[in-house]
Design goal:
CATH superfamily: TolB, C-terminal domain
Radius of gyration: 22 Å
Structural class: mainly beta
Strand content: 25-35%
Shape: globular
CATH topology: Neuraminidase
Number of strands: 26
Distance between the termini: 35 Å
Helix content: under 10%
Largest sheet: 5 strands, antiparallel
CATH architecture: 6 Propeller
Number of helices: 5
CATH class: Mainly Beta
Strand order of the largest sheet: 1-2-26-25-24
């Protein structure tokens, strides 16, 4: 195993902070070749001349991308949902990496390279059985992780819900070796959130950090924030409501909001799903919400969305944490308003014209749904064309079958059907639980270029209970089907 430590990570290591991570298996993706450096300026003894001659990342690399959905490998406008149940499969768990520190996101590059973000402030790259520390924002909020095997950790001492969150590689990686990252930092006026990208081929990627969006209000909870490039190579960003004061007041029967709740304010990025170009500009065909609206917004009225994926025809779908249970899965339409904080249950939705959820768990069940992927691979055929959702409080992977209401209904004898008349009029769903209470808190599920299914746990964030975290936590694991 080898590591390339950033300056900040190296200082942390020499200061006695453990960055030990164990490689526990072989990833089995990619070609094992490293990424060559591209466009690096030649060093000079004159620092001032260096600054003048060193090109910016925009000058080194062409960030533009094609926006033709038919070029997307998963594109299938004629797809259909399976009508069987997804339960005809058994699995073995293969631990690939153990003792990660609260991994929050994982993303595969087109060549199979894998990047993982740790909420405590480190991005690592896994390639050819080697783990390297790639980048570590110097101004990220202070946070820590519970020790492996510590079953009585303190959530608040572990940094709450802020820190390093979503990551995504540029669609033309490795020719454009840029990694995008979203993180929380501290200011004299409180927490803020920022979107940056790094040149991961540079000798010190931290020195190449380039800000795309900055000064987004943050909090100890509800920051979001999953980022991912979609079928047309736009970057999508899920934004939480950051525990906004007016949003909280709007859910109270005895308080008047001091101002418009931010999820309903189209001049604010909070409680939204954004869609931008790789350089940060708004996608040109985003909805027009009128004067004063932010042109980067695609949909609004969200609480704390932490997962986004796409149906094979390119339709976006997200997961959103509920209030007092009531977790949701939602189909996004351009300009859709999903009603938070006004609505969250059946009686509230019935009285409004807000966009309805495909799944709402109701007041009696909490999933705390996080990262998700619409699975199209062949490695687990029983899960093909279904949405795989990592759940935190639920401590399971939920396999949701999303189907058009005009199609044949999939079986749900061993699962739950969501098709009430107050839900999405065009889409319904069934859901089935896998690995309940086996791995603890599942932060994200992802599909590798090979079609394999990977997941990361979030057991060292101070919110686990029972047997978690174990001495192995947190882990990157591959789910290997043994029988179908």
């Amino acid at each position: 195993m080898s590591r390339r430590l950033s300056r900040r990570a190296l200082l942390a290591a020499t200061g006695g902070v453990s960055l030990g991570v164990s490689i526990a298996g072989c990833l089995g993706t990619g070609d094992g070749n490293g990424t060559d450096e591209q466009g690096q300026a030649t060093e000079s003894g004159d620092d001032s001349a260096d600054e003048e001659l060193t090109p910016t990342i925009d000058e080194q690399y062409d960030l533009t991308v094609e926006h033709d959905i038919t070029m997307w490998e998963q594109y299938d406008p004629d797809w259909s949902a399976p009508t069987t149940e997804p339960t005809s499969v058994d699995f073995e768990q293969e631990i690939v990496v153990e003792n990660l520190e609260i991994p929050w996101d994982l993303t595969f590059a087109p060549n199979g390279d894998l990047f993982i973000s740790e909420r405590t402030g480190r991005i690592v790259q896994y390639s050819a059985d080697e783990l390297q520390a790639v980048a570590s924002p110097s101004d990220i909020i202070d946070s820590s992780s519970a020790a492996p095997g510590d079953t009585e950790p303190d959530w608040w001492a572990s940094g709450t819900e802020g820190g390093l969150m979503g990551i995504a590689v540029h669609p033309n990686y490795p020719d454009v070796p840029l990694l995008y990252a979203f993180y929380t930092y501290d200011t004299d006026d409180g927490n803020r959130n920022r979107l940056v990208y790094y040149d991961v081929s540079a000798d010190d990627p931290d020195e190449t950090a380039t800000t795309i969006i900055d000064d987004i209000p943050g909090d100890t909870v509800h920051n979001g924030c999953r980022i991912a490039f979609g079928p047309e190579n736009y970057l999508w960003i899920t934004m939480g409501d950051v525990n906004d004061e007016a949003t909280l007041a709007a859910r109270s029967s005895d308080e008047e909001p001091p101002y418009e709740p931010v999820p309903q304010d189209t001049g604010s990025l909070l409680g939204k799903v954004l869609r931008i170009k790789p350089n940060g500009e708004p996608a040109p065909d985003n909805p027009d919400f009128g004067d004063g609206a932010d042109p980067r917004i695609f949909s609004y009225g969200h609480r704390n969305p932490q997962g986004i994926s796409w149906l094979p025809d390119g339709t976006p779908i997200i997961t959103d944490h509920g209030a007092s249970a009531r977790d949701e899965v939602k189909i996004l339409r351009p300009g859709s308003n999903h009603g938070w904080p006004t609505v969250r249950d059946s009686s509230e939705y019935r009285e409004t014209e807000y966009d309805r959820p495909v799944i709402n768990t109701g007041s009696g069940e909490t999933w705390a749904p996080s990262g998700c992927v619409f699975y199209t691979g062949d490695a687990v055929s029983a899960w093909q064309n279904r949405l795989l959702i990592g759940t935190l409080r639920g401590e399971h992977i939920n396999v949701a079958t999303i189907y058009d209401t005009d199609w044949d209904e999939p079986l749900a004898d061993n699962g739950v059907r969501y098709d009430a008349d107050w839900m999405d009029p065009d889409w319904s769903a069934t859901s089935h639980k896998f690995f309940e209470n086996e791995f603890g808190r599942i932060r994200h599920v992802e599909q590798a270029p090979t079609g394999d299914v990977y997941a990361i746990t979030s057991n060292r964030d101070g919110r686990s209970d029972g047997a978690f975290p174990t001495e192995q936590d947190d882990v990157l694991m591959r789910l290997v089907p043994t029988e179908e």
